[in-house]
Structure formats: structure tokens, C-alpha cells
Amino acid sequence: MIRRNPITGDPVLFAPERAERPNVFSGEAVCPFCRGNEALTPPELAHIGEPWRARVFPNKYPATDAHEVIVESADHDATFDSLPHDDAADIVRLYVARYRAHDEANVSLFKNHGAAAGASIPHLHSQLIATTFVPPRVAREIDAFTRAERCPLCVSIGEVIAETPHFTWVAPHASSLTYEQWIVPKAHANEFDDEHASELASLLQRASAAMLRVGDAFNWIFMNFRNAPRAHWYVQLFTRQAVLAGFEIGSGSAIEVIDPSEVARRFQ
Q: What is the pTM of this model?
């Protein structure tokens, strides 16, 4: 169900059934994502490998009519950085395939790793939520890209952590979250594709390992901009250590305590 903020009109998804999600972290439930427990999930939409190394199915406790879970390993204790590189590259290709499966909607693709990042199940996975509306943040960034004389992500944007032929991994100069990083494609495009999946997977694996050295919880978010050619897609990544307090929530502004140069130094 979609409701609207009475002041701004921003959409809010109401999904009370999500409060019933099992909390595997607390030991109250068997992990439904482990191989052999497939009957505990809705019927799958796609998989990789025989037996499966990754699988996709509708979320049992959906926030929208199109809410998917992408389980990224049969190993309950795997982390993204611990996967064989070819498996990680296949998962990036799977991200793109599932994104394209919802080509008429706005698609949010993200990972919550660890309880502090919003996960209720520790087994390695990401999620996809398709909405009939363009979320406020996405709309705001599309507007900013459209108004800019030159694409902001086609110029220098932060402290470089690493570069590959087709991507730059940076700590943005004006980060708003602790140990925030962006992985930005060097070629301007508003949506991702799987042409350089192996290269992107390598950076995601390096970022996963780096963030887990800092803490046990992190998020990454694929920022795609459907039907907005002036926009430039990227991946936002950040650890979950700091708690948003009154000023941040009340003002919508950030107070950052880690300098981007320190992020780049620590993650290189």
C-alpha cells in the first residue's frame, strides 16, 4: 500500500506483514536461504548453477508486488568477498538480468549485510524492489543531473581508492555516511549493464572485504536512473556504525566524522 506524507507528498510504502519476518540472527528460525530449505521460500524465478550457486525468488514478506530476494551463495557463512570471483561476476550479471525483468518500473537493488544494516537473515543475499513511482531521492538526483551543465560524475568527485579500466572507486568529498564510497563507471550511462560484470564484481568484492575490516554491517545500493539519459548510474556503499540522530533526521543534513582521505587510505 502506498500512502503519502501529508506535507511533502512523498510516497511511503506500508507493509505491516514485514513485521512477521523470521529473525535468523536471534536463532528463532531455521535459515530459509540454505540449500535444502528451498520449500521455505516462494517458488524461484531464476538460478545459477546445478546444484544452484545463486537463486532468486519473490520475497515472502514483500514491501511491494515486485519484491525479490537474490541469494548469492549456498554457503550460509559466505560473504561477498569470499566468493569465487567467477561466482561474484555471475551474480552481477544476475543483478542486471533481474533489473531488466522489471523494465516498466523503478527498480531499487540493494544489499543489507548484517543486522545493523537492516538484514533479518545473515545468509548472503541482496534484494530488489520495483515501484510504480520514482522514489524521492532518485527524482531529486535526476533533477540535479538534468540541470547540471556537465555531468557531476564525469569529473573528479572524491578521493580515489582504486581504478580499473572502466570504473573508479572513490570516497566522495562530501560523504554523508560513515566510510561512504561510490563505484562510478567511467563511461556515462544512466543504467548499468553486464558488459564489465567481472570488473565490477572485483571492486564489489574488494569493497566488501574493506568494509568488513571496519565493522560487521554495511549496505550497498545500485543507483540506476531509468529514462533519464542525463543521469549517471553508480553504486553507493557505506558501513553501518554511526546512528542517525536528531539533527540528521530533523534537518536532512549530515554530520560526517571520517574524512574521505582517511577512507581512501584505509581501503586502498
A: 0.95
